[in-house]
Amino acid sequence: MELVVDGRAATPAGSKPRALLALLLVRANRICERDWLIEQLWAGRPPSGAPATLRAYVYQVRKELRGLDGGAALRSRGGGYSLEAASGTVDAHRFEALSAEGRAALRDGATEKAVAAFREGLGLWRGAAFAGVDVPAVRERARLLDGLRLDVTEQCLGAELDLGAADVSELEHLTAAHPLREGLWRLLMLGLYRSDRQAEALDAYRRLQHLLDAELGIAPSPEVERLHRRILDADPGLQRPASPRAEATARTVPRQLPAAPVHFTGRAAELGELDGLLDAGAAVVAAVSGTAGVGKTSFAVHWAHRVSGRFPDGQLYVNLRGFDPMGQPTEPGEAVRAFLSALGVPPGSVPKEPDAQFGLYRSLVADKRVLIVLDNARDAAQARPLLPGGPGTAAVVTSRDRLYGLLAQGAHPVELRQLDAREAGRFL
Fold first, then answer.
1. Which of 308, 306, 307, 303 is nearest to 288 (CA)?
2. How many domains, in total, are found in the chain?
3. Cβ distance 93 to 27 under 8 Å?
4. 80 pairs with which residues across the strands?
5. How many whole angstroms separate alpha carbon 120 and alpha carbon 122?
6. Closest by alpha carbon to 118, among 108, 134, 105?
7. Which site from 186, 234, 240, 360 is most exposed, i.e. has the minimal number of CB atoms within 10 Å?
8. Both 69 and 113 in a single domain?
9. Does 290 share its domain with 391?
10. Are residues 79 and 105 in the same domain?
11. Between 349 and 397, whose confidence is greater?
């Protein structure tokens, strides 16, 4: 369990304040009675000064929560306390919501959408739920969350197998960690078979059969037995043709630009600058800067639509929200995963390491003619990992910042000032 405020760990130091925070999170947005909190914290044997000590713990937790700027607050309510947490503030709640979203998508036949939701939810985990907190109500909540995590993992891997994108090594690891979970063994057998490793798939069945007999004195389930027979018979119905997905991926051409502004006027000199850079034939990176409201996004999107025909392999767009007053800036890792999805990479084929994700992204666009618009960047560091390196690509970065870090690396500066009187009159 970890409380993070502005990117720094702010979890209370003592075991009892941490346990109090965990109890409040278990019942987030509901009132936790003081007597119930005391009973949980001291396992039914509270000291004589327990109410005063509880108030001190509440003060510690409340002090740490103040840095969340409205994301969460600890209120005194009707003989108890309520931890009021905004949507998306508690990872456990987000995981449960994403799990439900993934299951609904599976029921609707939207397998790729399901995998994306499952993977986003599973990516929130950093270990066992509420590890290190030992109070009864939290232990029960942790047990349920850990069980849901395993269910979702199994459903996610099954969906990825249906898409032809499951990681067999992950299944090997999971069967070793949860050796009595037959559903994981079934997926491992199927994944190995579809990877042209029939002998290993049969060996996995023998390992499971021996394990269940030795530990529980039972045979594998009928479902696993049926799969074993079908693998022995080399049933062609177990295979998924790989070519249609590969062809679909190859045909994916992203068209992500927002709608072009209808009444765009002016900026002829700046548009000509960008046109000239394209005509020169080299890779283009333009850094468009200017004050808030001067029209940077409209300028970039208007020009991108005007030249989109010169980029037949697609146009990528992301709002990096560098100066968004309503939310946090978009992390480069989040943006690159969205780009990989737009370029046709199945969720199960996205590397787990961030550096590998950026490497795959650059590889996919290296030999293509792709236009990339990085809108509303906070600074050069946020935009730099998303810039392509291929000779046929072009990128436009907009920001209130002057982006000197990009200029030092050869980006072309375009500074937008206020419209002059003639352009302003035409716009009006």
1. 303
2. 3
3. no
4. 33, 77
5. 6
6. 105
7. 234
8. no
9. yes
10. no
11. 397
What CATH number is associated with residue 377? Answer: 3.40.50.300
Q: 3-state class of 398 per DSSP?
A: strand
Q: What is the CA radius of gyration of the chain?
A: 27
pLDDT of residue 71: 65
Nearest CA to 92 among 61, 121, 113? Answer: 121
Same domain flag for 291 and 408: yes
Residue 245: what are its φ and ψ, rounded to 5°? Answer: -65, -40
Which residue segment(s) compose the domain that 355 sits in?
A: 253-427
Domain check: are 79 and 95 in the same one?
no
Task: Say which CATH number the domain at 111 has.
Answer: 1.25.40.10
Question: Over the stretch 285-307, which tens digit does the pLDDT of each residue have?
Answer: 999 999 998 999 999 999 999 88
Whether 363 is covered by a domain: the verdict is yes
Distance, in Å, from the CA atom of 6 to the CA atom of 65, rounded to the nearest integer, reads 11
CA–CA dist 170, 119 (Å, integer) = 13
Q: What is residue 252's predicted lDDT score, i.e. its pLDDT?
A: 64
pLDDT in tens, 190-247: 999 988 889 999 999 999 999 999 999 999 999 999 999 999 988 888 876 444 444 4
The pLDDT of residue 65 is 79
* Cα 81 to the center of its chain, rounded Å: 32
Does 137 reside within a domain?
A: no
pLDDT of residue 247: 42
pLDDT at 303: 93
Whether residue 244 is contained in a domain is answered as no
**Same domain as 265, residue 215:** no
For residue 326, the tally of other CB atoms under 10 A from its CB is 5
CB 267 within 8 A of CB 300: no
